[in-house]
Each structure stands twice: as structure tokens, then as C-alpha cells.
Amino acid sequence: MTMARLHGRIALVTGGLRGIGLAIATRLASEGAAVTISDLDAPDSAAVAQALAALGSDAAYLRADVTSEADWASIAAQMEAKGGCHILVNNAGTDLTGAVETLSLDAWRKIMAINVDGVFLGTRALVPLMARSGAEVAGGASIINVSSIMGLVGYSEVSAYNASKGAVRLFTKGIAVEFAQKRMPIRANSLHPGFVRTPLLNAGFQRWVDKGFAEKPEDLVAAMEAATPNGRLAEPEELAGPAAFLASADASYMTGAELVIDGGWTAQ
User: Fold this and answer.
1) Which UniProt keywords apply (predicted)?
2) DSSP line for 195-263
3) Residue-wise burial string across 45-83, b where 16 or more C-beta atoms lie within 10 A, e elsewhere
4) Residue among 61, 155, 161, 253 flagged as catalytic
């Protein structure tokens, strides 16, 4: 593996302070990219300092809400000032569980705003800059939208999350075809993780425990592992390599594809 295959490329990873986002950002930086991460934490927080220290001297942090048009306009301006944007990882997301008849409209709209609007707004804001940046590098610019296996198959009491991640999957295909037919040097692909050990998953499991579905989160982890063909959950770093591949010229003929990383879950 050539660890400098992203040398000279500028990347933005949303939701980049923890979990899958931080793992992807770290991998992109290790392969030579200058990485900017965005999240909701204050710029002077310990989490930001720790992440930037791990990402290296070229790294930067932008506090941004992915549901805000104004924040995305600011991000686009700051990325342009940095010299462009070759890689956009729309990773920021949240979850929502519960029987459909118990879900509030406000909760539905919140998950759609973060998981779907955020991907749309980020794409729309950065496409002009990415079209210019993509013309400079082999394989073009790369948009990587983090969906989920729940964007491929249904699952009980996660209908809102299913809907949001399914929207990300097809939005990605739509823009991929659009850019390709216009001969814009931007590829767009989606990542579909299975169950990954992240703070978001842990919080979700705790909510299931609070609802009485299990005695402790570890019981739910064991159940998920038992239902996964390879018998374990993924680590965030196992999503980072596939993301770096999609970001690189090694994936120059991939656009509109869905890369499933789920330990065999959806193969059943």
C-alpha cells in the first residue's frame, strides 16, 4: 500500500471528532491528505485538541452544524482559502429508534435534517470548488457519503433511520450520474457500515436498555455479534481503509457505487 497516495489532496470530514469520522480523518491524514474536520464541539475543547494532535500539522477544525446553510457557506469559503477540496466525507449523523407510532414529527425531522439535509447541503456547497479541485488530480475529486446497512435493509423500530440512510444511498447515486454525464471531475460513492463500535452505537444500545429490551448494553453487543456472520462488531478503523480507497485514484472508475462493510450481515 502506498501511504502517500493522497499527498497534496485537501479533505473535509464532517462529524470528524469521534467514531467513524475520526478514524477516516486519521487514515486520510496518514495517506498524505491535509484534513479539516468539522463537528459541534467548541474549538477550544479537549476533544478538538486531541484530534488535531493526532491528525498532524496540516489539520484544522471548523465548528459547524451540518443542517445550517450559513455554516456550509462558511465551510466552503474556508476550504477555498485552504486551496480547494478534493475529498468530502459526509459522515455526520444521528440515530432514532422506536415503534413508528411512537415517533414524534419533531424527532423525524431532526434525523432527516442531520442525516439527509446535511449531506445535500454539504454537496451543494462544495461542488463548485470540488469541480475545480478535481480537475487537478488523477481520479478526480471524491464525495464519500456515509450511509449504513440500514440504508439497504429494513430493521424493526429503526424506520426513521432506515429512511434517512436509504435517502443518502440514492442521493449519492443521483449526483454520481449527474456529475458523470456532465463530465464533472467528481465521483460520489456511499459507504454502508454494519455494526461498529462507536459512541453513537453505545448510546443507542443504552437507550434500548433503558426501554427494557436488555439488562445491559453488553447483552445487545453479544446479540449483534451472534447475528453477524463473522461473529464480531467492526472497529472504526475498518471503515477508514475503504474510505481512503474511495478517496484515491485507485477508485477512479467507481462512482455511484455502494461499498458494504458489514461482516457479512446483508449477505444473509
Assistant:
1) Oxidoreductase
2) SB--HHHHHHHHHHHHTTS-SSHHHHHHHHHHHSTTSSPBPTHHHHHHHHHHHSGGGTT--S-EEEEST
3) eeebeebbeebeeebbbbebbbbeeebbeebbebbeeee
4) 161
Residue environment code for 192-223, b if the CB has 16+ CB neighbours within 10 A, otherwise e: bbbbbebeebeebbeeebeeeebeebeebbee
CA quadruple 43, 44, 50, 55: dihedral sign: positive
Residue in 72, 70, 106 with CA at minimum distance from that of residue 90: 72
The residue to which cell 440512510 is assigned = 165
Element housing 91 (H / E): none
- Cell numbers representing residue 187 in the block: 465521483
Q: What is the pTM of this model?
A: 0.95
Distance CA 200, CA 116 (A): 17
Cα separation of 177 and 94, whole Å?
27
Cβ neighbours, 10 Å, residue 264: 12
The one-letter amino acid code at 186 reads I
Is the Cα torsion angle 191, 193, 197, 199 positive or negative in sign?
Answer: positive
Q: Render pLDDT for 9-32 as a digit per residue (tens, 0 to 9).
A: 999 999 999 999 999 999 999 999
Give yes or no: 161 in active site: yes
Strand partners, 63: 39
In tens, the pLDDT along 109-159 reads 999 999 999 999 999 999 999 999 999 999 999 999 999 999 999 999 999
The answer to whether residues 247 and 9 touch, using CB atoms and an 8 Å cutoff, is: yes
The answer to whether the CB of 13 falls within 8 A of the CB of 21 is yes
DSSP annotation of 100 reads G
